[in-house]
Design goal:
globular, 13 strands, alpha/beta, 19% strand, 4-stranded parallel sheet, 3-stranded antiparallel sheet, 39% helix
Length: 310
């Protein structure tokens, strides 16, 4: 999920949040630290920690600040402090769990938690519709070596991994589980790939909610509709979703073209299938009125909280 879209606004409500990170990053600063120090990727989980932080603003700003002159993909220059902080803590302490606990303390994350889906060192793999196998979260996220027009048949982890035990307990004991929004095959689905995830979902009595993306992405969700997203999610968790929240209003061509100038991999609005009704499908105007195509995070948090109270 996108931390600023879901986690930050939810902190205002009387809920305990456990954010789960896929742990499959392989590019940029995170990838370099991962290769140089043989540590787990910490870029995404550091963002979750900041979103859940109760620390003074300077600590949160420090975690997002960059330093150094190395140039990485996406136009970033330098390492992000939060990524370095966790990676070096793991390197010296010899344990990702210890490093994560240290980061929770520094950022004063108290009633909430940010957890890894697995603590096994894995790479994200994808099988395309033509049978080709591609490796790496960054290659799936921004295709460079394969044809981005090909659909993804499935994604999996190499080597196989086990679910982080506290995440298993969190899934089984949760009142509400929220999946998405975010990069579908390179962020959302990877959280569901470790062994033990399906079993935990089957045992969980939590309401299972999917926040559907509003825009399809080149190389990941070419031509997807709401039901395409739902079918994929349900196949990976092994149980039906209870609620699907989607953007029901149209998006103008002008807004799309403006968005594409910032996000080159953006394609078209997610197609809304006919007949989406009943208790399961919740169609709302989920975007801000500014025309930026950003989620209205306050409205989304309110929807999630109301579903939790039902």
């Amino acid at each position: 999920m996108v931390p600023k879209v879901v986690l930050e606004p939810l902190r205002k409500y009387p809920v305990e949040i456990i954010a789960v990170t896929s742990m499959t990053e392989g590019g940029g600063s995170t990838g370099q630290l991962r290769n140089d120090f043989n540590v787990l990727p910490s870029g995404d989980i550091s963002r979750h920690l900041v979103a859940l932080s109760g620390a003074p603003q300077w600590k949160r700003d420090l975690f997002y600040s960059r330093f150094g002159r190395e140039k990485f993909s996406g136009g970033h220059v330098g390492h992000r402090f939060g990524t370095v902080f966790i990676s070096l803590a793991e390197h010296f302490l010899g344990s990702f769990e210890k490093a994560l606990g240290f980061a929770h303390e520094f950022l004063e994350v108290k009633e909430h938690k940010a957890l890894p889906a697995t603590t096994n060192n894995v790479q994200l793999m994808a099988e395309l519709e033509n049978g080709e196998i591609i490796e790496g979260e960054d290659e799936i996220d921004v295709p460079k070596k394969h044809k981005p027009g090909l659909r993804i048949r499935k994604v999996f982890l190499k080597p196989k991994a086990r679910i982080f035990p506290p995440v298993r307990s969190a899934i089984i004991g949760a009142d509400l589980i929220v999946l998405g929004p975010g990069d579908f095959y390179s962020s959302t689905i990877p959280c569901l790939l470790p062994r033990g995830v399906k079993e935990a979902f089957r045992k969980s009595k939590a309401k299972k909610v999917f926040i559907c993306n509003t825009i399809t992405k080149l190389g990941e969700t070419n031509g997807f509709s709401v039901l395409d997203f739902v079918g994929e999610i349900e196949s990976y968790i092994g149980v039906p979703l209870d609620f699907v929240v989607y953007h029901k209003n149209g998006i103008s061509r002008k807004e799309i073209e403006k968005y594409k100038r910032i996000n080159r991999s953006a394609l078209k609005p997610v197609r809304v299938d006919e007949g989406l009704s009943g208790r399961k499908f919740i169609g709302e105007n989920l975007l801000l009125k500014t025309g930026s195509l950003n989620f209205n995070s306050e409205k989304l948090a309110k929807i999630i909280f109301n579903l939790c109270r039902q």
